[in-house]
Design goal:
Helix content is 74%, strand content 0%. With 175 residues, it is an all-alpha fold. The chain has two domains: 1-87, Orthogonal Bundle (Rna Polymerase Sigma Factor, Chain: A); 90-164, Winged helix-like DNA-binding domain superfamily/Winged helix DNA-binding domain (Arc Repressor Mutant, subunit A), CATH 1.10.10. The longest helix has 25 residues, at 52-76.
Length: 175
């Protein structure tokens, strides 16, 4: 009964939030199950929260990041031979797809390098389009603090991802 009231209305957003971080169906399923388990364990706190939907989304983001970190630890220990076999065929028809995927991975890696609060705030604001006030409720802080987290995250992401931003060519004033 409580599930239909609290979780069912945002279930699709939960899946999207997790997917944007993990980008793998198996990992997304695992992260969603972990998030639901956490929600179940903390049901009283979630139900009493002023904005339970934002809190549940935050729990989903935590679970997704945990999954990404687990995968990163596994990849560290992966044999170099396995990596060579996992590299996709680089035929011209896949070039654009691969570049786009790599950029997405670089963005996710950059977000993962941010401090926890900044990463949560930027994901909830820029990706999930959650309002600053709802993010503040979910993160248990003031709205001004959330705005600072988002602003600082954007600055750091610009620095970390500057190689992805095309250089603006200056026009020659004499031409």
């Amino acid at each position: 009964m409580q599930y239909e009231r609290l979780i069912a209305p945002i279930e699709e957003r939960m899946v999207r939030a997790i997917w944007r971080i993990v980008r793998n169906p198996d990992d997304a399923d695992d992260a969603l199950q972990e998030a639901l388990l956490t929600v179940w364990k903390r049901w009283g706190q979630v139900a009493r929260h002023p904005n339970p939907h934002a809190l549940v989304l935050r729990i989903c983001i935590h679970a997704a990041y945990d999954r990404v970190r687990q995968q990163a630890r596994r990849c560290k220990w992966q044999d170099a031979g396995d990596i060579a076999e996992a590299i996709p065929d680089r035929s011209p028809s896949l070039t654009q797809k691969l570049a786009s995927h790599q950029q997405g991975e670089q963005v996710l890696e950059a977000i993962a390098r941010l401090p926890k609060n900044q990463a949560q705030a930027i994901l909830m604001r820029a990706v999930e389009e959650v309002s600053y006030s709802d993010i503040a409720l979910a993160m248990n802080c003031r709205e001004a603090t959330v705005r600072k987290h988002v602003a600082r995250a954007r600055i750091k992401l610009r620095t970390l991802l500057s190689h992805l931003i095309p250089a603006v060519q200056k026009e020659d004033a004499h031409a």
